[in-house]
Every structure is written in C-alpha cells, then in structure tokens.
Predict the 3D structure of the following.
Amino acid sequence: MFHRWKIKYKLIATMMLVTALGMFLVSSAFYFTSYGALEKRLHNRINTQMDILAQNIGATLLFLDESSAEEMLSSFAVDPAIVVAKVNDDNDAPFAFYSSGPETAPPASATEFVRDLKVGEEVVGGLKVYVSHREIVEQGNQLFLQSVVIFIISSVVVFFAALRMQNVFSRPILELDKLSQEVTETNNYTLRAKVLADDEIGNLTSHFNMMMAQIGERDKMLESQVRARTIELESLAEQFRHRAFHDELTGLANRALLTEQFDSLVKSARRKGKSFAILLLDLDNFKTINDTLGHNVGDELLMAVSKRLVQSVRGDDIIARLGGDEFMVVLNNLTNPEDAELVAQKILDNLRRDFFLSNRTLHVTGSIGISLYPVHGEDLVSLSSNADMAMYQAKQMGRNMHAIFHQGLGLDSEFRMLAQTGLRKALSKGELVLFYQPKLDAHSHEVVGCEALIRWQHPQRGLVFPDEFIPYAEENGLITELDTYALRQACQQIKWWEESGNALPVAVNFSPHNFADMQVIDRIKNILDETGVEPSFIEIEVTEATLINNAKQATDVLNAIRELGVKTYLDDFGMRYASLEYLKNLHFDAIKLDRSFVSGILSDEKSGRLIQGIIALAQQLKVGIVAEGVETMEQASFLADNGCDYLQGYCFLKPVPETEFMSWYSSHKTEAKVLMSSR
Ligand code: C2E
Ligand code: CA
Ligand code: CA
C-alpha cells in the first residue's frame, strides 16, 4: 500500500512519522521527568511536615494527651495531599487520628509515610501519614494536555514544512519522470531534464541527460545502419532477381526471363498487330574452341559474342543465352516478318569478324534458325523447337547460314533424334560405309587418287549423307572414333586394291576435334602398322577451322602427321577465311579449293580472278591445288588452263560405293589409254 503512494506522500509521511516519533519520545521524557520532580517535591514537603510534627507529638504520647495529639495532627489540614494521619503507641495501638474528610481509613491508592516517634532516644510510638497523589495526577494531566497540544501544533507545523521540503526531493524526480514519459511517447531523444539541484538527484538528472544524448546518438547511428542495411538488402534482392533471370557469364537474359516475358511479348504483338521472331543461334565451331583452347577462352569468346549480338539488334529486342553456345534473340515489333532474315544475316556478318581474345585471333561462325510468331507457333515451346529445327537446317546447309522454319523440317528433327542415339550403334554395326570419288590430274585426266566420303546406310531411312550426322558426331564427341573408323576402312581398301593391282592413294577427312591432342598420331600410326599401308598413300584433309582456334597445337599435330609420311591437304579453302597465312606457314601438300568457289568461276568474273590469284600463289609456295565440285567440262578446262593440278567433281564421278568406283576406274583407265593411243 505504502509502495503505491506517490513519492510526495511518502516523503511527507516519512517526515511526519519521524517527527511524531521524536516528539513522542521527547514529550514522554519531559512528562516522566516532570512527573518525577512533582512527586519528589511532594515527598519532600510531606517529610518536612512529618519531621516538624514528630519532634513535638512524641510528648503527647508520654502524657497520654490524645487531644493535643489530635490537635497537632489537624495541622496537616493545610496540606490537601495528606488525607489521613495516625499516631500509634509503642504497641501499635491507635492513639490519635486525623482525616481530611469523613473517611476513617486511608484510601488504597494513598502512599504511606511512617516515622518513629521518639522522646530522647526512646521510641514511644509511630506516626503514619497517608498521602493522596491526586494533586500530582492533576498536574500530570495538565502536563499531558500541554504535551498533546504541543504535539498537535508541531505536527501541523511539521506537516506544512514537510509539504514544502518534499519538493526539494520530489520535484527533480517528478521532472525526470515526466520527461521520461514524454520521451517514451515521442521517441524524441533531444529532450533534456532541468538540473534543479546540485546533489545526487542533480547528478542523476545530469546522468539521465547524458544517457539520453548517448541513446540519441546510438539511435541516429542505428537508424543510419538500418538505412544502409535496408539499401544493402534491397540491392541484394535485386542481385538475386538479376541472377535468377540472367546468365551469369554474359549478363544476358536467361530462359527463365524469356519465359516470364513471353506473355507480355504476345500481348504487345497482338495489341500492335505486329509479329515477333525468335532467332536461335548456335556457334558452329565452339566445341572445338572449348576443347582445344580451354574453357577460359571459351568463356571469353561467349562474352565477346554476346557483345556482338547486342550491337546487332535494337534496344527493345531481347537477347538470351540458353546455355553453352546457344543464344536466343527475340526481335520485337516486326512489321515485316522477312526483316527477321535481314537481322539474322546482320548477326552472322557481325560474328564473322575476327575476335581478338587473349592475344589470339579467333574466328567463329554461327547458324541461326528462325521462327515467327504467330505463324510458326503461339507459345514459347513450339516457337523454340521450330527455331531449333530451322537452326539444324542451317547447319546442314553448310553452317554460317540462317534458315527460317517450314513444315518440312519436322521430318528432319525426327532424324536428328535418331542420329543422336543411333550413331554409336551404327558405327559398331558397320552401317557407316565409305564412298569414293576420284581425283584426276587436271591435264591428263588420269586418276591420281580418290577421296573417301562417309555415308550412313540407315536400315529405315536409306542412305544418309555426312552433313546430316557429322554435326552430331562432333557434338557428342563420337567424331574422332568415326574418323578413325573411316581411316581404317580406307587403309584396308588401299590394301585390297593394291592386291588387285589398282593401288590408289585415298584422302580421308579429319574433323578439327582430332587436333586437340597428340593421341591422333598414335591412332594413325597403329592403323598404318595394322594394315601395312604405305603412309604416302594416305592424305588427311583438314579444314581451316582446325587451325583457327589453336594454331600451335594443330600445327604440331600436322607436322607429326607429316613426319609419319602421311600427306596433308587443306580442305574447303576459300569457303570461310582463305587465310594465306596458313599456306605460307604450314607445309600442306595441297589445298582443295572449295566447291562454292569453283561453281562461280565461269559466271562470276571476280571468282575467276580470285582463283587465278590463289593458284598463282600456291604455285609460288609449291603447294598442289585440287579443285573440288567440278561439275562441267568447261570448268575443268578453265581450271586446268589456269594452272590447277587436280580435279574432283560430279563431272567425272559422284562419290560411289567401292565396287562401282572400281568398275568406273577400270573403264576410265582403258578409256584414257584409248584416248592416249588415239592422240
Ligand atoms: P568435303 O570434304 O568438302 O567433301 C566434298 C563434298 O562435296 C562431298 O559431299 C561430295 O559429295 C561433294 N561433291 C563432290 N563433287 C561435287 C560436285 O561436283 N558438285 C557438288 N555439288 N558436290 C560435290 P559429302 O560426301 O556429302 O560430304 C560432305 C562433307 O562431310 C565433306 O565435305 C566432309 O567435310 C564431311 N565428311 C565426309 N566424310 C567424312 C569423314 O569421314 N570424316 C569427317 N570428319 N568428315 C567427313
Ligand atoms: Ca574433303
Ligand atoms: Ca571440301
């Protein structure tokens, strides 16, 4: 109960209580000492009176003079305190008696005073006086009354004094209390309490103020920390969002972002009555680069490619990396769907420019498949898969191309699945066979060798051409096995021909994947040893792609191949880069002019002049020249007239199975003989 009182009342109560206790003790002491003094004074008075009387009254006993004795006793009447007085003889028998009132016996409350009555030295009786304390009690009461009055008056004074005094203690505390309440309610830490005293409470207030200042500081610091943390968290959340929707390597969008934005793409296209196109880009020789130069260079290239892509399209188009070397570009707001092809070509042109990475020059090309919304699909899945089919079509067309989706592609996609899964089995089941195409001397038309070209004799689909399955073999790494297989078959063939007296050199095609390490040398050596074929009967054809990505490694492998005695040819020369550097620095036995080159020589003046230039250069470098894809005799004679060494093409013979090739070869030999003898 006391605990719940306000501090003010506690202080007043405490002061009052303490004062009351003090007053009580003081008054009691005063009362009892005063009372004791009164009593002492009374006793002295009585004793004095008794002494005086005792000296005279003894004689009355001697003389048995009762009346005198009583007269003497009656002198006590002057003192109202004496109520009864007796004189007894020496036998203690009553002799004289005095009473102030009618009573004959003393009241029980009276105090007895006794004195021996002597005459000379002899005790003759006794005097007994009974004294009433009424007088003292009355005076005591008066005293008590006075004490009470003083007590009351001083209490009142103390109360008012306490009322004022408590202020000294309680005001600073109440101030503090008020302030702390205000701070709690307003969170305003700039408020300060007034320091009202220079004592402990004053210190308390100062400390309180200091504490407030500290809390204020800390509050500010916390607030700024919280603000900083919030900004940090927001940016982190943004980063997470970004990461979820973007490709980490290139910073381009990823499939998730495309999927998320697809609905709004569709809506916007519908609203504006426009179309959009999906371009699926796959780099043609990326796997080789990655395998031969390592992932770091591969990554660098992907980043550089993504920059080129950004440069090739408009700001509102979306570019995403779907994984590996596969990119998707969404061309927005197409009024004219054919524009997609223009952009695709622009992308391919931009990609074809040299990439300068880590002190290296890299060349890449890409193949692009295009599908259009809404004609080729209305959802992302069908648009993507149709663009994918078109992309494979572009690859089959010879890469570095773009193709737009059409319904006929569906069939091809079916085969793609088959190729992906069936190729390894086909290899072990002997479904892969070599066709041969002759290579003739440009002037004498004598057969100087042949090229082995692989075919898949598919049990359901019939004859499948290499362009349809080589890309998968390159993708899944089966290509080196396939090329080794082709080389072994070719060697066995050489051996059989040799046995039948028709020994002919055979050219085999080696994919760039063979040049990633030196193991290919062992493979070639083993096959030569196994079959016993003379190394110079083997010509290995490689494309420029082999050299572009890791020229040093490829050069080492090529040199090692040459050291075995095997011949090396640079295939498809002029199709992509026609780099004269390679011709100068690498000692190929011959270059093979790409058939796209050859096809234009008569119709296109520029091609003709270019071929003349290349031939002149090759002659200077003492490198043989094979023209492939020769389809007409006009082409054949143009090439021969311009210094081309060898010819290969449909105009002589298409690639055919071995038996067919041999029968053609036999008749061609006799024909040539006839021709020669007739000349
Ligand atoms: P390639 O090495 O450039 O082979 C020449 C291609 O031109 C062959 O196509 C051949 O049939 C075709 N050809 C020959 N003469 C003519 C002609 O007068 N006109 C036209 N239009 N074409 C002609 P094929 O057999 O379809 O081979 C395509 C490509 O597949 C080859 O191009 C070669 O790069 C690759 N290839 C073939 N066999 C193998 C192999 O065993 N290993 C590897 N890695 N690649 C191979
Ligand atoms: Ca070839
Ligand atoms: Ca070729």
In short: The chain has 20 helices and 20 strands.
